[in-house]
Design a protein that fits this description.
The protein is α+β, with helices and mostly antiparallel strands. The protein is built from 4 helices and 5 strands, in the order H-E-E-H-E-H-E-H-E. The protein has a 5-stranded mixed sheet with strand order 1-2-5-3-4. A hairpin with a 2-residue loop joins strand 1 and strand 2 (about 145-155). Helix 1 (about 10-135) packs across helix 2 (about 165-180). Residues about 200-205 and about 290-320 have low confidence and may be disordered.
């Protein structure tokens, strides 16, 4: 009968202890698990943050390097562009200089040819006028600035006080024209006429009041008119009758200025003279239009005015007798 006796039951208090013990163990285990997991997560987070910072620093460094490379590339491109412009400018200037050198060479060759032709023309004129003066003891040829100047007494061309050419003067001028014929646009023909202080002057007006005895003798104003008209007469004859193809014919009346010898009794005749010369024209003055104008456009006459007269013997253009 004894085995039928039931075992004693656990009390309520013991069951609660066991239950709460198990619950406590579960929570303790869970706390430990989550604590460890949280610490691991924090470690991973710190590692990831460090990695992110490293990557951010590397990215910033790469960005800086990229900016530097872009700036360097921009500077290099600008330098290449500047060099290209510099080279292009140099090539343009070089082409211009080559063109200028070529043009200068052509101009120099043309000028050399023109100078040779002008030298031949001067020699031809020199030979011709020397043949003229060989026929007369009163005429001569002087050199002025390296060019020959035909110097003849006014009596060969004009009667005293007159402005009309003598017949024999026309023969002289025809020979001068023949000596320089065919030299179109290469020379300037210059005609200068001179008189003396009183050798062939017309009567001067009587002043209202007598001049002091020691006062210098005034120049007769008719001297300017006389020499200017004589120079113009010769220039017109050379142009119209001689058919000279000169671009310019300069006619100058010098009155009694620039005497070649003192105006003494023997010097008057030598100072009354006509001078004819040619001057080579430089190439820039050879205008194409000048050859197409009327014959009167080829000749210009200029008479010296009293206001611009130099003192006697002071002109650098005066040659030795």
């Amino acid at each position: 009968m004894a085995y039928l006796v039931k075992a004693p039951r656990v009390g309520r208090s013991q069951g609660a202890v066991i239950f709460w013990g198990l619950v406590s163990a579960f929570f303790a285990s869970a706390f430990c698990y989550y604590y460890l997991e949280n610490r691991n997560n924090e470690e991973r987070d710190r590692t990831l943050v460090d990695q992110v910072m490293v990557l951010q620093s590397e990215r910033d460094s790469l960005d800086s390097e990229r900016n530097k490379m872009e700036a360097a590339a921009s500077d290099t491109e600008k330098q290449l562009h500047d060099r290209e412009e510099f080279l292009q400018d140099k090539e343009t200037k070089l082409a211009q200089e080559e063109s200028a050198i070529e043009a200068t060479g052509t101009q120099t060759q043309t000028q050399s040819q023109l100078s040779a032709e002008q030298a031949a023309g001067v020699k031809k004129f020199d030979d011709a006028v020397r043949k003229l003066v060989a026929k007369s003891q009163d005429a001569d040829v002087v050199l002025r600035g390296g060019r020959p100047v035909l110097r003849m007494p006014s009596s060969f061309f004009f009667d005293p006080g007159e402005t009309q050419l003598k017949p024999e003067a026309k023969s002289i001028l025809d020979q001068v024209a023949a000596a320089v014929g065919g030299q179109a646009g290469r020379f300037e023909l210059r005609v200068e006429t001179f008189t003396d202080t009183d050798g062939e002057m017309t009567v001067a007006p009587v002043p209202a009041t007598p001049a002091p005895a020691n006062a210098p003798k005034p120049h007769n104003v008719d001297a300017w008119q006389l020499t200017a008209m004589r120079a113009a007469t010769i220039a017109h004859y050379l142009r119209d009758q001689g058919n000279l193809p000169f671009q310019d014919v300069i006619a100058v009346g010098r009155a009694d200025f620039q005497p070649i010898v003192p105006n003494s009794q023997q010097g008057h005749a030598r100072n009354r003279r006509v001078e004819i010369t040619i001057t080579p024209l430089p190439a820039p003055f050879h205008s194409p239009e000048a050859t197409t104008k009327s014959p009167h456009a080829k000749t210009g006459t200029a008479a010296a005015a009293p206001a611009s007269a130099p003192a006697a013997g002071t002109s650098a253009d005066t040659g030795a007798p």
